[in-house]
Write a structure and sequence with these properties.
Distance between the termini: 25 Å
CATH topology: OB fold (Dihydrolipoamide Acetyltransferase, E2P)
Helix content: under 10%
CATH superfamily: Nucleic acid-binding proteins
Number of strands: 6
CATH class: Mainly Beta
């Protein structure tokens, strides 16, 4: 089964080797037919502490690293949307 990959923004980098990434998804409401935004926060493993608050990153599903970390940071996103692995 392929690993899930999500794109989001780092909202916290206070913990050692961990970043909190906010991932936003958009969908059309079934009744109102209006676009709705929902956000979810994921804790991701950042081995080298390279990513800071405000960075756009790509995270990938991985084995459990700790009680709450099931994702690892793959790389950063450039403004054009390309992935730059670190």
């Amino acid at each position: 089964m392929p690993k899930r990959v999500l794109r989001g923004v780092v909202v916290s980098d206070k913990n050692d080797k961990t970043v909190v990434v906010r991932v936003e998804r958009r969908f059309t409401h079934p009744l109102l037919k209006k676009t709705v935004r929902r956000t979810k926060r994921y804790q991701a493993h950042d081995e080298a502490n390279t990513y800071k608050t405000g960075d756009r990153v790509v995270i990938e599903e991985s084995r459990p690293v700790s009680k709450s970390k099931r994702w690892t940071v793959v790389g950063a996103l450039t403004p054009s949307g390309e992935i730059v692995a670190s």
